[in-house]
Amino acid sequence: MSENAGLSGQERTRSTLDPVISLTDVSKSFGSTHALDRVQLTVQQGEFVSLVGPSGCGKSTVLQLCSGLIRPSSGAIERSYENIGYIFQEPTLMPWRTVEQNVRFLGELEGMSRRESRRRAAEVLALVRLEEFDNHYPMALSGGMKMRTSIARSLLLDPDLFLFDEPFGALDQISRTRLNEELTSLFADRRFGALFVTHSVDEAVYLSSRLLVMCKRPGRIAAEFEIPYEFPRIPSIRYEPEFALLAGKVAAALAESS
To answer: Which fold has domain 15-83+165-258?
Structure first.
């Protein structure tokens, strides 16, 4: 865990100029399958970067490389922090533990005292609006609430880099839209670095400060878009002509890369 892990966004200042992670000419092969080809990617502190691309282009492989779960076949990966939050497609909650106990789990692994882990659990559960469900078990939660619990669990250690692997893909549109809004508010408050994988162009434009389009295998960065909206995002921007125009440009780049 990094030296600054566990401190809230209000307790420390995060520079928005420092890269959290950089990939330079990173390639990855799995046997005879060439998954990624010379990927160049940097995530700055306080930057929300989304990856969109066709299925099988290597988006999830990029996240695994960034997390250190796998190593590149060639190229270099530089991390300025080791405190990383990883949100998977499924919440991966332990059904025999309550919401609070699931959230405190990473703190327990780090040797955090029970008093401190409870304090921090209460803080992050309030951030994701689950403070009234702290004693509920996962089976009593909706899909969106389970995902909030998963996000709160990673927030307990206040990561400098958040990796999101299509976390809202299985949710209904109403829940997904609501969680998009909550995530932008959370990002505005904490200003971690974020790398978010999604198949939804609308979601990527709404969430991101920068958006990257990947091409089909072997995956590489085919296009890049700066997103001009401030955080936290106002839900109504989805209905503005400029938003539709930008989403259309991303969709066109995605079609060209597929």
So the answer is: Rossmann fold (3.40.50)
